[in-house]
Amino acid sequence: MSGMDDRKTNEDFILELQNIKKYFPIQKTLLDQIFVGRIDYVRAVDDISINVRRGEAFGLAGESGSGKTTIGRLSIGLEELTEGKVIFNGTDLASLKKEELRKLRQKMQVIFQDPMASLNPRMTLGTSVMQGLLIHYPEKADQHRDMVVSIFEKVGLTPANFYINKYPHQISGGQRQRVVIARALITRPDLVLADEPVAMADVSVRALLLDLMVQLKKEFNLTYLFITHDLATAKYICDRIGILYLGKLAEVATVQEVYQKPMHPYTKALLAAVPVPNPRKRRTEPMPEGEIPNPINPPSGCRFHPRCPLASEECSMIEPKLEELEPGHFVACHHAQLG
Amino acid sequence: MEKEKLVKIRDLSVSYQTRIGTVSAVDHVSFDIYKGEILGLVGESGCGKSTFGKALLRMIDPPGEISSGEIIFNGENIMEYDYDRLRDFRGRRASMIFQDPMTSLNPVQRVDEHLIETIQVHEPRTKQNLALQRSKVMIERLGIGMERLLSYPHQLSGGMRQRVMTGIGLILNADLIIADEATTSLDVIVEAKLADQLREIRNDFGVSLLLITHNIALVAEMADRIAVMYAGHLVEIGDIYKVFEKPKHPYTQGLLASVPNIRFDTKEQLYKMPGEPPNLTHPPLGCRFHPRCPHALPICSQREPSLLEIEAGWSVQCWLYQKQSNEERSD
Ligand SMILES: Nc1ncnc2c1ncn2[C@@H]1O[C@H](COP(=O)(O)OP(=O)(O)OP(=O)(O)O)[C@@H](O)[C@H]1O
Ligand SMILES: Nc1ncnc2c1ncn2[C@@H]1O[C@H](COP(=O)(O)OP(=O)(O)OP(=O)(O)O)[C@@H](O)[C@H]1O
Ligand code: SF4
Ligand SMILES: [Mg+2]
Ligand SMILES: [Mg+2]
Questions:
Q1: CB of A75 closer than 6 A to ligand 1?
Q2: What is the pTM of this model?
Q3: Of these four, A189, B30, B53, B243, which has the most CB atoms within 10 Å of its CB?
Q4: Do A291 and B159 touch (CB under 8 A)?
Q5: Nearest CB neighbour to A233, from listed B195, B260, B271
């Protein structure tokens, strides 16, 4: 069993992922299934444990296909687990009936990458944002409009009455993402899953959105599960971060620890690859060989071993466990080292 | 050492006719591209970067139109080329790699066929086996395994496809490669490798690279010079080290200060640029940046500043740097 055992301090965890797995079956023809007699799986999430503390921003980073989105969807019950447990506010999601899960959803909201795709083009912005209230607080119908105005002001869409009557195509991309944030926050969630929320925004808009998310987190006591492939962005919002490689956690610690003292060779390569906006600090480190392998038949032992500069025989045979090598700093590598 | 000029762009303007009016996407832009340099072109979405890049190859289709200007490539004004010469120019002298190579690669053609065809279209007398030989050399040069020559585009990873596109751009020894967001959809490690390869190619072939991107950190990583566009204007161009150290134009200052930096030794607060980029059917009068500028002077909303060289090789389009010529211009 690989996992993060940081429960000793009796902390208040809002979200506990316990050895979660998600295997997607590969679609094959019926004939294949009969004659080969075996279904292949994409091991999108393969035995991951994370405890998210109430009030923190926990980042999940890694390259495309590493399983970030799938973990996010599993965390809020949008996807069924292959194995493991997801515990939200002390409740095992699997123990809930559909209706109960739907009720709980108001406490776990989502912000996706593309605000245009997540807003109904034929609904005014005000109506879109009000939907959550209609579902979760129908009894407070007389207060809905005031609540919408208030949340528009909080996300910086002022004057609120001007924006409420607009349609998505009439505002900019950055403003649209503010509407999506408003819609997520209006049901007063405890946990916000943000899946690449600023990936489509221009640099200057990105800076504004990140700042807004930091402000709102304080004001509404939110916990963020912040998914990103951009480590530089994660630095400005996340307290802790988990680095994923092919459905496995390679390293977990505070952002500062991971960025300043990375221990996993993959984390090191990933950090080195991120360009720095300073021409006097150009990268000199070489990049790892090869490309990310196929998640259907991931490499034996440590999944990074075919590309790892430190790989030994042990690495190709034995899967390294995620271990706490320094207080609060977890690494899954046989040769984890500082420097 | 005087750097040799490959392209001289003079007074280039491109506009699009749309239902709601004329979009002034590139407005009277002039600058040079040197031989063998990597020039990064940055700016917000919609500021005209791609339009500019396409205009360099005269690839603007209706409703767009190059409404003014000259593009002098190696001494020849390509605005005067007829269709045949233009077609030969694209590919042989200058070529473009895009964000999504899938749209420019033929899905039913293998990698070797792409390369051989590129050679034979421009050099019809080249024999098949010679063309194949050159293709192999190029593929190897780009760090792609020989076995990939027989692959179809969909069998390649995104980074691999980008390298094939780069190979197609280079196989005829083009002098200029325009990479328009070529690394944008790639993962960082793949992007870093492609960046290394592009740099090596520049060093080995002496080709000039126009790197169009909104990834400012990537420009810091790769480029020799940086050009900054705002709302169709070229507002600053200069040496990469100097501009990053002390940007002159208020827009460049704000832009660079809003770029996240992974290092912990830098300022933790990102600059929050006020306002929104303008609508290019009705751009602001005067300096197009004035409504968002923290240093705007009264004149900024009335008259357009011109792009002035304020130091050797460093030009800025901003009233803050043209006080002397201010009086000259007002009479
Ligand atoms: N519904 C699905 N059916 C089959 N495979 C899937 C499905 N969803 C995801 N996958 C696969 O699972 C793996 C992880 O995908 P996921 O979307 O979680 O990655 P990600 O880290 O979010 O990537 P990206 O950065 O590209 O968004 C990938 O190999 C993906 O192809
Ligand atoms: N075919 C077209 N028809 C009408 N307007 C166009 C067309 N292509 C571009 N434009 C407009 O011209 C302006 C410049 O667009 P361009 O694509 O050159 O910007 P860009 O800087 O490349 O942006 P991005 O970073 O989003 O790629 C924009 O206002 C855009 O809406
Ligand atoms: S010209 Fe004026 S408004 Fe424009 S950037 Fe310079 S100071 Fe600001
Ligand atoms: Mg994803
Ligand atoms: Mg573009």
A1: no
A2: 0.92
A3: B243
A4: yes
A5: B260
CB atoms within 10 A of CB A214: 14
CA of A44 to the centre of ligand 1 (A): 6
- For residue B220, the SS3 value is helix
Residue of A nearest to B220 (CA): A279
- Domains, chain B, in order of start with CATH, read 5-93+175-277 (3.40.50.300), 104-173 (no CATH)
The pLDDT tens digits of the residues spanning B34-65 come to 999 999 999 999 999 999 999 999 999 999 99
Alpha carbons A201 and B270: distance in angstroms, whole number: 15
Q: Is the peptide bond before B63 cis (omega within 30 degrees of 0)?
A: yes
Query: What's the confidence (pLDDT) of residue A4?
Result: 53
Question: Which residue from A minimizes the CA distance to B267?
Answer: A236
* Burial class (CB within 10 angstroms; exposed 0-12, middle 13-18, buried 19+) of A30: exposed
Q: What is the mean pLDDT of residues A149-165?
A: 94
Quick check: A277 and B273 CB within 8 A? no
Contact B177, B95 (CB under 8 A): yes
**Structure tokens of B74?**
């190696």
pLDDT in tens, B131-153: 999 999 888 878 788 888 999 99
Which residues have a Cβ under 8 Å from the Cβ of B285 and sit 6 or more positions away?
A: B301, B302, B304
DSSP-derived letter for residue B259 is S
The tokens of B217 are what?
A: 């950190």
pLDDT in tens, A27-64: 766 666 666 666 788 999 999 999 999 999 999 999 99
Terminus-to-terminus CA distance in chain B, angstroms? 38
